[in-house]
């Protein structure tokens, strides 16, 4: 069997049957392989394409080859990805994929394989005619999104906005990078690197051609920072004062706190409370790399935030673990890892942290809640309940950022003010 096909199939099998995250599976299977960067790229494309068309490919396989074992299902995923979209393998290598499958050469199987060969690269034409166009089921197949999520978005935002969300999520996002103005200004950066261009956002740049900017010299020298404009805008809108106290809670890996570096400098004082081990070590490394000498960071459970903050602060940013539906755009297997059944537990955690951190905001200060998702249950409705049970807070601003906006991102944030209580 072609080596690229075999490795792609092994990685896909690990993702689909062992629930291994995409990046972890790729690194596990390829770390000891003697392959070129081109071959690695092809393997990543095969697996990524299979996952981004999972629902319609899965339907075709169940319809025409329902008795396939999991290994052979993965081979058909790779075969369809190549024949319909990638066109990397030769016709001969493509045909060998099917020959390597453990199929009996009976007429039914041959007919089924011929049916798969008739498939078109127009996803809409692969969807059965008996499924009503633009129905939730149709959109689930068309945009490779869980049916429950399509239905939820339709209920929360209407069919028109749901279609725009799904369409935007199916397209790659631009690579916005923030210029680290403590080291260099944007004009100087653009003069220094001819392959970068100014974006429409102030102090942001883009690559002129498709490339991984995390390997770019400007990124390695920390002249540019991987913070999306949407997250940066949250810090820009917030009323922050390092002397009166800034605290940040994050329940997932997130370097948005580096926005404070640009707003002030590397001596800015703040407390970073992290409720996730992976996020803690990533944040610790980032703080050290950017020489944030006055940043204090702690890893604690969400129930112990109060043990890290000695007195009320003026500004408390709360970034709890959420459904993180923004990852649907950038992570090809995220739809496999987050399910509808997880939502209730996530919302309870978000509500708990909002109350916990709200108690640590001084009078006249701000509580900023932000989550990278699109879900009214975790956003507007949750904030409404919080305000009803905490009359000392008022809503200054809230915004749902959609992936079809100029930000090309999914993010909800609310800025709440803790009113000053008159004292006799």
Distance between the termini: 82 Å
The strand order across the widest sheet is 7-6-5-8-9-11-10
Per the CATH scheme, the topology name of the largest domain is Rossmann fold
Give the CA-based shape. Answer: globular
* Quantity of strands, as a count: 11
CATH architecture of the largest domain, by name, is 3-Layer(aba) Sandwich
**How many domains, in number, for the residues?**
2
What pattern of helices and strands is seen along the backbone?
A: HHHHHHHHHHEHEEHEHEHEHEEHHHEHEE
What structural category characterises the helix and strand content?
A: alpha/beta
Q: Regarding CATH, which class of the largest domain?
A: Alpha Beta
Percentage of residues assigned to helices: 40-55%
Cα-atom radius of gyration:
24 Å
């Amino acid at each position: 069997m072609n080596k690229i096909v075999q490795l792609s199939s092994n990685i896909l099998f690990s993702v689909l049957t062992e629930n291994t995250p995409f990046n972890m599976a790729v690194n596990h299977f390829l770390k000891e392989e003697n392959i070129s960067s081109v071959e690695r790229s092809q393997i990543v494309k095969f697996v990524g394409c299979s996952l981004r068309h999972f629902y319609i490919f899965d339907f075709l396989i169940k319809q025409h080859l329902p008795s396939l074992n999991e290994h052979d299902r993965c081979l058909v995923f790779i075969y369809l990805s190549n024949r319909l979209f990638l066109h990397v393998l030769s016709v001969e290598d493509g045909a060998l994929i099917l020959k390597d499958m453990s199929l009996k050469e009976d007429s039914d199987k041959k007919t089924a394989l011929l049916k798969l060969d008739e498939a078109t690269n127009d996803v809409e034409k692969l969807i059965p005619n008996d499924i009503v166009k633009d129905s939730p089921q149709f959109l689930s197949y068309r945009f490779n999104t869980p049916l429950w999520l399509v239905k939820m978005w339709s209920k929360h935002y209407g069919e028109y906005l749901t279609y725009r969300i799904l369409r935007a999520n199916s397209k790659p996002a631009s690579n916005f990078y923030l210029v680290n103005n403590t080291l260099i200004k944007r004009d100087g950066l653009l003069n220094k690197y001819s392959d970068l261009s100014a974006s429409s956002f102030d102090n942001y740049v883009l690559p002129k051609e498709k490339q991984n900017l995390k390997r770019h010299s400007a990124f390695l020298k920390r002249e540019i920072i991987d913070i999306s404009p949407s997250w940066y805008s949250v810090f820009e809108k917030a009323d922050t004062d390092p002397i009166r106290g800034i605290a940040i809670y994050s329940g997932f890996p997130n370097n948005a706190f580096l926005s404070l570096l640009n707003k002030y400098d590397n001596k800015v004082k703040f407390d970073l409370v992290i409720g996730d081990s992976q996020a803690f070590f990533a944040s610790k490394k980032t703080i050290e790399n950017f020489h944030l000498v006055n940043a204090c960071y702690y890893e604690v459970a969400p129930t112990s935030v109060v043990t890290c903050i000695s007195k009320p602060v003026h500004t408390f940013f709360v970034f709890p673990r959420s459904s993180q539906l923004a990852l649907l755009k950038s992570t090809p297997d995220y739809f496999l890892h987050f399910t509808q059944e997880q939502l209730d537990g996530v919302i309870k955690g978000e509500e708990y942290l909002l109350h916990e951190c709200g108690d640590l905001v001084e009078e006249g200060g701000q509580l900023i809640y932000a989550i990278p998702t699109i879900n009214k249950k975790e956003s507007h409705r949750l904030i409404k309940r919080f305000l009803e049970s905490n009359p000392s807070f008022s809503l200054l601003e809230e915004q749902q950022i959609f992936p079809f906006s100029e930000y090309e991102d999914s993010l909800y944030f609310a800025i709440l003010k803790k009113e000053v209580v008159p004292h006799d």
